[in-house]
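Problem 12. The chain below contains 234 residues. Write out its predicted structure in token notation.
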Amino acid sequence: MRKSLVVFVLVAFSNNIFVNASSVSKVDLIDYRSYVVSILQETMNRVENNHWCNLKIDNMYMNISENVLGTNMSGTVEFTDGFLVSLEKIDIIESTVQRSWVPTRGNTTNVEVKATMRMLNFVIGFDVLAKLEDNEYHSTGVIRYPEIRFPFVISKNLFTDAITVTVSSQLIGNQASNFMVFLPENKVTKVITVLFKTNSITDSFQKWAAETFAPIAQDLVENDIEFPKMCYNC
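Solution.
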């Protein structure tokens, strides 16, 4: 069976496939759209059932040396215990639900099923400690991001039947006007607000993709949700 699949794939792009001596003009995956949507939905259900605890933000540190209205501010700022505070909406971008045939090395082909999940208007929070020469300042900092996307790619090798899942992250929108808000606010937090780089969190978002979403989806495709079957002349 696997050998016949390999023969099919090698000539698939000629649009004239012969299987058991009969001409096949079209090959597709049965209901691949429902399949990939189910994978993404169940992945996020598991994240939610775990109370979003896996969506952590790495600790970050900032050195500051600024003169503000004649006052020197010098020291370090620690951003710790970062976590997802709130989230307005999660959805799947309909136009990204696709499947494709990808030739690979070794005279075989992968079939890929793709979809992109996005989070809208989500807020990240930190415990913030500024250790300056004159004093220490404690506060809570939150920053809102309008949109982040997580493209999922589920790839099946048509010769080995091995299925792999990869997930990446894409922060959307211009972050230049996106500032962290502090409570309580003071002269130190006003300086931190200007110095904090909103894209400094992107490595943590990629960890969400690779270390949380991808392993959950991998478990689903291997143990719970069957990969779509191929149909011919359908």
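Discussion. Residues 1-24 have pLDDT under 50 and may be disordered. Students who got a different answer should revisit the alignment rule from Section 12.3.
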